[in-house]
Amino acid sequence: MTRYNASAESAIQPGQFAPDPRDLRPPLSVRARPYLIILPALLLTVGILYPFGLAVYYSLTNYTLSNPNYSFVGFLNYTMLLTDPEFYHSAKVTLAYAFSATVVETLLGLGVALLLNRETRLAKALRTVMIFPLMIAPVIGTLIWKLMMQPSVGILNYLLGFIGLSHFEWAAAPQSALFSVVLVDVWIYTPFISLLLLAGLQSMPKEPFESARVDGGSAWFTFKNLTLPMLAPFLLIAVIFRLIDSLKMFDVIYAMTGGGPGQTLMNFPLQAYYYGILYMNLSYGLTYMIILWAIVYLISQILVVYWGKAQQRAAGF
Q: What is the pTM of this model?
């Protein structure tokens, strides 16, 4: 086997033949190493982009699950969607659910993280309890809450009866359905934000807080000028995760109400499921999901820009 020798050319003596340039190249195993290193990333990229590209393609056709003979219709599905009142109702439900759940969970998660950051026995015990909702599948947690919210036999109305509110309809009434599913979402996912922010609080340097304490800074002054700026990157990461997840929420709403009562909670993922799977109009259902992807992409890009700026401010740049 011919070995690669970079000094072979300079070692040629007078009267000797010059070596074949192919012998000076590195072995095939060395030349192939960069391609082998990027191969998993390349396969992963193809695995992500291929289904997405297929979904975009089918959204430009009239493909249905009951009729495989489809044709290319261009942007007809998008035109129909943008003139459909159901689309704007679903957009309103999707955004209202996502923003209300994210705001409540972020505020509650921040409060709980500040509480758990104290070195007390209660805080240490609560750190273990806080992960319980994360250990339960969201559908199971939602079904438990659905039983507790039963207007006639649920325990929540029994407890509300002590203050004269025993007839609250919860998810059975259009006026309170959104509140009910957001409440379940808050119960399931607030611990995630709390633990993420707690990790951020415990990674902060101690010296600025000790200096503020020596100078007589109040708790509010320390929180506003030290804690909050240094915690901002963690807060934005939590917001990005929860907002993206809430925009495409399916399991909690479906398990709790199936999109009802009536059409009350029909957000984009549920519309896509009903049109694409139950009504077999796959191209129309995919159109909902492509528009949802565009909304999620736009919002996430804006938040990522803010996250980068918050990181620079926290690092002192």
A: 0.83
* pLDDT by residue, tens only, the chain of 317 residues: 444 454 544 555 665 666 666 667 777 778 888 888 999 999 999 999 999 999 999 999 999 888 778 899 999 999 999 999 999 999 999 999 999 999 999 999 999 999 988 888 888 888 888 888 888 899 999 999 999 999 888 899 899 888 887 788 898 899 999 999 999 999 999 999 999 999 999 988 888 888 888 888 788 888 888 899 899 999 999 999 999 999 999 999 999 999 888 889 999 999 999 999 999 999 999 999 999 999 999 999 999 998 888 888 777 65
**Contact between 84 and 78 (Cβ < 8 Å):** no
What totals of helices (H) and strands (E) does the chain contain, helices first?
A: 14, 0
Residue 212 burial class via C-beta count within 10 angstroms: exposed 0-12, middle 13-18, buried 19 and up: middle
> Whose structure tokens read 């807080």?
209
Query: Is omega for the bond preceding 269 within 30 degrees of 0, making it cis?
Result: no
- 257: number of CA atoms within 13 Å, CB side? 27
